[in-house]
Design goal:
360 residues; alpha/beta; Rossmann fold; Dihydrodipicolinate Reductase, domain 2; 10-stranded mixed beta sheet; 6-stranded parallel beta sheet; 18 strands; 34% helix
């Protein structure tokens, strides 16, 4: 028997909402039910351009989506500064919340969102899509293999893209009143999550921002980096930027093995994704090569990672609605840890690049 569809409403017509709209359509247990914008004409054009079903409701306000009794869940792609208001209101209206990242401007704001979700019994999940790709689970198997990978010692990751002049002047991610974290919140979120993922979500002891971040004329971060340090000696670094060529790398190095990939945020291809794994590699005689060389692993998927995210979220929502299950706490916990590290990086920048302790 096919799963009963969860009816999604979308708050706003952001560019990323085009991708998630398609994901909702592709997800077998979801229905694209409604969209709301501050302009009903804009909402109508968005629905028409993005394949909404003819039955979809078109609203001229976000409130109207939340007031629709048939909307089960909402996707919120609004600017980060608006997340607290609209995610809390959605939870109070008993709508389950799929929230775009970064989840908040700081962890205090995020805690208000989670408190609202928990007190109203609704599911929370952030929009970190790569977490839901089957490649991610396969890589986790390798990192957890003590014989092939050993103990994690260092992690290095970057997410950069070269934004055009219009983006750097007009995009919401460079506006202090809309997305004040800039590249740290947008691209850095993925880097921090990947580091925590590799460390099995153990928070670092301290975070130290790298010197010479690039800020625009109104103080929003366009490029920055950081180092992270754990009490057991693990270290990690990341770089995020709106000013460098498109790069999405992860390198995780253990005592016995290493993992590499170059497209962790968005795979090079929608239905397959690869990574390389090396285990107990050494030099050939006369240093002419490696023995053994890293192995290449390709993971196939019938659905793109964003549709897998929607499917998992909808499945959790359905379990709550039909079985009386409690909301899954895994996802807000991972979001909070990611936000804590982002907060520490921002604090280190603001304090002149001193080490900042991370406390849960």
């Amino acid at each position: 028997m096919a799963e009963k569809s969860i009816r999604f409403g979308i708050l706003g017509c952001a560019e990323i909402a085009r991708k998630v709209s398609r994901a909702i359509i592709l997800s077998p247990n979801s229905t694209l039910y409604a969209v709301g914008s501050r302009s009903i004409d804009k909402a109508s054009r968005f629905a028409s351009a993005n394949g909404f079903p003819p039955s979809a409701k078109i609203y001229g306000s976000y409130e109207a989506v939340l007031d629709d009794p048939d909307v089960d869940a909402v996707y919120v792609p609004l600017p980060t500064s608006l997340h607290v208001r609209w995610a809390i209101l959605a939870a109070e209206k008993k709508k389950h919340v799929l929230l775009e990242k970064p989840v908040a401007l700081n962890v205090a704001q995020f805690d208000l969102i989670v408190e609202a979700c928990e007190s109203n019994g609704v599911q929370f999940m952030d929009g970190t899509m790569w977490m839901h790709h089957p490649r991610t689970a396969k890589m986790r198997e390798f990192l957890s293999d003590k014989q092939r990978f050993g103990q994690l010692k260092s992690m290095h990751t970057c997410f950069t893209f070269s934004a055009d002049p219009d983006f750097l002047k007009n995009d919401i991610r460079v506006k202090p009143d809309l997305d004040a974290l800039g590249a740290l919140g947008d691209a850095g979120w993925y880097c921090v999550r990947s580091i925590l993922w590799a460390a099995d979500y153990e928070l670092p002891k301290t975070v130290t921002a790298l010197r010479e971040p690039v800020l625009n004329e109104v103080g929003v971060i366009l490029s920055c980096g950081s180092s992270l340090h754990w009490e057991d000696g693990k270290v990690a670094t990341f770089q995020c930027s709106f000013l460098s060529n498109l790069t999405m790398d992860i390198t995780a190095i253990g005592t016995k093995g290493a993992l590499h990939l170059h497209d962790f945020v968005i795979p090079f291809q929608e239905k397959e994704a690869s990574f390389s794994a090396a285990s107990e590699s050494w030099f050939k005689e006369l240093l002419t090569g490696w023995v053994p060389i890293p192995s290449e692993h390709t993971v196939m998927t019938d659905l793109p990672q964003e549709a897998l995210m929607v499917r998992e979220f909808a499945s959790l929502v359905r379990s709550i609605k039909e079985n009386g299950s409690k909301p899954e706490k895994k996802w807000p916990t991972l979001s909070r840890k990611t936000q804590l590290v982002l907060d520490a990086v921002k604090a280190s920048i603001d304090r002149g690049f001193e080490a900042v302790e991370v406390q849960y």
